[in-house]
Task: structure prediction
Amino acid sequence: MKSSSKNPKVILVGAGPGDIELMTIKGLNAVKKADVILYDALVNNDILSFAKPETKCIYVGKRFNDHKYSQLSINEMLVDYAIELGTVVRLKGGDPFVFGRGAEEVAFIESRGVETEVIPGISSALAAPANQGISLTKRGVNEGFWVITGTTSSGDVSKDMTLAAKSTATLVVLMGLRNFSLIMNVVKKYRHKYTPFAIIQNGTLPDEMILIDTVGNYKNVIDSIDYSSPGIIVIGDVVADHPAFLEEEIQRVLEIAF
Result:
């Protein structure tokens, strides 16, 4: 393809967890100057309104059993559009390097001689719990947290889940709702049955929803999960600080007493 651009470039931009106001200024500025934008399923579409009127915006999102473009096709599109039109923004939900295949795309693009730049974004792994008042670390309670994929490329639960469950750290599981029961069965082997967990869906958005219970009672929430919406799972004693957990505990005590 003959180049009409003197400076082809692909900028990987983290769009943040959902709330448009949680996107970085640097990321938004990249959107404003883009000639082409390839955006994912978890991106707030309101961000696209900041693009130039002539900017070509292409949806390349992947959802469960719905992949319009393969990863290889996306890689090639990024290179081809950069060479043809100039500045391409690859807009990803959260952060490009947190389960976003950002490193794969950078390697491919640069192997074709096209310049890249990465603009980090706020991951839902951090923002969704914080938005609900759940601190992933807390002095005297835990000393760290794990961020783990809930579904590997083979569809299985990551082996790291066992290692994380054996620790005292908070577990933050992304893309794990469809494997929720499998994940909880791993965790309950190593954590106390009264360990609290939270499922946060549509984090930082107006329709954000949270479900809270304990590892021993995880089946109570299964029917309330909206599998069509993105969500994260937070497991650990820090979840006990959420007001809803206290309400659940009070209700549980009352049921036992009466």
Summary: Residues 177 and 227 are 7 Å apart (CA to CA). The mean pLDDT is 92.
